[in-house]
Each structure stands twice: as C-alpha cells, then as structure tokens.
Amino acid sequence: MILLTGATGYVGGRLLPLLEKRGEAVRCLARRPEIIKPRVGPRTEVVAGDLLTPTSLEAALLGVETAYYLVHSMGSEQDFMEEDRAAARNFAAAARAAGVSRIIYLGGLGEGELSPHLESRQEVGRILAESGAAVIEFRASIVIGSGSISYEMVRALVERLPVMTTPSWVRVLAQPIAVEDLLAYLIAVLDKAPVVSAVYEIGGKDRVSYEQIMREYARQRGLSRMMIPVAVLTPWLSSLWLAVVTPIYARIGRRLFTSLRHETVVRDDKALRDFAVRPRGLAEAITRASTNEDREYAESRWFDALSSNGRAPKFPGASARRVDARSVDSSATPGRLFEEVAALGGAKGWPYHWLWVLRGILDQLAGGVGMRRGRPVGRSLRVGDALDFWRVEVLEPARRLRLRAEMRLPGRGWLEFEIVERGGGSRLTQTSVFEPHGLSGLLYWYALVPVHAVIFAGMARGLARRAER
C-alpha cells in the first residue's frame, strides 16, 4: 500500500494518476476528502487526516509500506517553518508506529546558508529520517510545467511587462527541471532496490539564470522584452510588485524571493548514476509546458493545494488567469443538482437572465455570436455543443460541466460547475476562469468584478434553490 500526501497539490495531483496507471494500491490523505474523491480511480482510497493532528494519522498509515511526503506550509499565515516542523514530526512518529518501510520526500536544492524556505525543506527531510524508515529525498530546483508556481510567475511577468526592472536575483543560477522528469524520478524510485536512505539532487540539463529562463520563454512566444537591472529591490517590495503583476500571493512571494537569492544547482550526479531518467533542457521544458497548458491546467495547479494560501481558497489565481471560485451546499442529490446545471441556457435562460441578455447584445454589436445560438432541443447536452455564447468542453454526468466562452473577449474564458456528494446532499463549486490578453484584458476583468460578484454568487445560489424545489 502506498500513502500519498499532498494529492491536491501540484506534484501530488500529477503523481496520483501515474501511480494508478501502474496498478499500485494507493491511499490519499486529505484534510477535505470530498475535494479529491471525484478525482481518484475506483481502487484508490481517500482518508481524512491532517498532518498537524497526530491522532488522524494512525488509520491513514495502517498497512502502508511506502509513503510520499509532498506537502509544505509555505502559504500558511502562521510561522510556516514551525508548521512544517510540527507536521514532519507528527508524520515521522506515526510512520514509525505503523512500521512504514520507506518515505519518499520532495525537498529543495541549496547548500550553505539558506533562506528560511529552503532551510525548512531540508530540515523536514532530516526530521522524517527520525521515523526509522528509509527516507529517499529528492532535492529539486524550480519546476517547469504548466500550472507550477515558478513557470506561472515567469509566464505572467513576460506576458505582461514589455519593460522590466530586474533585481540582482534574476542573475542567480538555478537548474530547472521539467515536471515530467520530476515525476519520472518519483515513479522510478519505487523499483529501486535495495531500499536504503539517500539524498538525490535532481535538475534539468541546463544551468541557467532566472533572466535566461524569462528570455527563453519570451523567445518562444515571439516577444521582445527589455530588462533593466536595478541595484536594490528588497524581497518585501519584490513580493508586492509580483502580487500586482502576477497571481502569486504576496505572502508566498516574499518567501520565494528570499530563496531566489540562493543558487539551486545540482552538485552531485548520483541521481543520473542510479536512475535511467535523463532530464530534458530548459527550451524543451518550456515548449512542453506551453503546448500542454490547457490540458495540464485542468489536471493540477499550484494553488489547488489547500495550504497554498493557508486555508481553502475562495478566490485563487493561476498563471495569467483570473479565477472566481465559489461554493454552495444543497440538500438536493448530485444528480438532481446536475440536472439544473445542465439545463442552463436557451429558452430556460440563466439566473439574472437580463444581464446575460445585455451581455449577448453587446457581443453581437462587437461582431460576436451573442445569445442567438440557444441550446440543443430535444436531447441532453454533449461535448462540443454550442450553448448560447458558450461551448461545452467537458461533461461528466452528475459531476462536472465546463463551458468555454465564445463571446468576443480580450482574452479567453471558461465557466465550470463541479458537484460532489456532501452530507446526504451535495456541494456545487462554480468557477469562472479568465485569461486576459494584455492590459485591455486586465481592465476588462477588474471592471466587471462588481458585476461578477452579483451574477456568479446569485447563479450558484439560484441553481441550488432550483434543485431543491
């Protein structure tokens, strides 16, 4: 049995289907099981537990031979180092009591005097070793993949800023690794014998500065960007600047910036000697991230982890995208609630229908399709169907409906409804995603924030009320 912690996070969310594909018996530990249950295969278990609550770990670790430890508290509003320390100690003690034979941990590269973030990542590895289990620790630099916090930071900065003032940390060396290569290591270690403790430094083929990473992204996007070095830009000021122009929370940004001043490069090639994984270079990693962006965005994003902002996110942000997410509970069954979601549009209309009609008129005036297309008559929705000025992109009966916007927009938009069973009823999570194109896209999004607050909150509540009638 394999226990996977951090299954709602960026790396864990992508590792889970790979473990399932191998036919492994997997158990996921989650603070909110209802979030992950719809995402797992039929053979995968999901158990409730919190690493900061020791009593919740005993059942989770029962019968476990290998555990993946893929969690951190960097988004915590409290002392993240102390929370990381406490979580690791609790897990180590519970693993020792359960007789876990192997813990696979993802930490961070760096040596010498480290930032609090990097020091915490390495301290956690040392604490886990106190469990008595063999601890295989992979230390990585930044991860390149659509949805990863590092890639999305680079992407947002380069896409939005033709001219950048760059502090000294942009010239510090890193060794970025493609998420596919990172996952390959995490899977390959399962087949490695004998099972003994080890620390592996892993990275991509290239050692590059953050400036070089941004320039490579700009090159592939065909963008010309000017970077002007500045002598002083403190981590605090940098984090506030980053929070304005990228989706990264200022709190996380501050902690990241203190780490960016430290080189994170591979100095020990033991991983290349012990594993058949041959990591790709920066250019290929960026190309793959860009190519797979839409599909991988839907698989997992860095903000999906409940710890990314210290609590369950209500208004998360991803890449250059703006997200409005809100949930409502209903006494109706998931199937009944989905009926109402899938009946939206056409003659039945939308909650606050007059506002949608007005938006459709404006779209027609701008040369768009407006609300003229309606919805299919005499049958249920299917993937690919037009629905007013939306198109059905994903449809999973009684679970999920995702619509892609086809109205005229200074960007791209999606509207998704996801339903899970909850306490004899159901919970509807409604998410609006907008990827702005340039300054006009950002102005469009923020100008409509008050309107969205009314429409989207009212729509979620209205659907729940309709389903309960």
What does this structure look like?
The protein has 469 residues and is α/β, with parallel strands linked by helices. It has 2 domains: 2-299, Rossmann fold; 320-468, Alpha-D-Glucose-1,6-Bisphosphate, Chain A, domain 4. The chain has helices at 10-21, 33-36, 58-61, 80-98, 116-128, 149-160, 179-188, 210-221, 235-245, 250-260, 270-274, 282-291, 293-299, 334-342, 353-365, 438-447, 449-468, and strands at residues 2-5, 26-30, 45-48, 66-69, 102-108, 134-140, 143-144, 163-166, 173-174, 177-178, 198-202, 208-209, 226-229, 317-318, 321-330, 386-387, 390-396, 400-405, 411-422, 425-436. It has a 7-stranded parallel sheet with strand order 3-2-1-4-5-6-11, sandwiched between helices. Strands 14-15-20-19-18-17-16 form a 7-stranded antiparallel sheet. Strands 7-10 form a two-stranded parallel ribbon. Mean pLDDT is 84; it is low at 306-319. It is 39% helix and 22% strand.
What is this structure, in a nutshell?
By secondary structure, the protein is of the alpha/beta class.
- Tally of domains: 2
Shape: globular
- What is the end-to-end distance? 44 Å
Describe the biggest sheet? Answer: 7 strands, parallel
Flag low-confidence runs. Answer: 306-319
CATH fold type of the largest domain: Rossmann fold
Q: Indicate the radius of gyration in whole angstroms.
A: 23 Å
Mean pLDDT: 84
Q: What is the count of helical runs?
A: 17
Number of strands: 20
Determine the structural class based on helices, strands and strand pairing.
alpha/beta
Report strand order across the widest sheet: 3-2-1-4-5-6-11
Task: Determine the strand fraction and express it as a percent band.
Answer: 15-25%
- Fraction in helix: 25-40%
Query: In CATH terms, what is the architecture of the largest domain?
Result: 3-Layer(aba) Sandwich
Superfamily at the CATH H level of the largest domain?
A: NAD(P)-binding Rossmann-like Domain
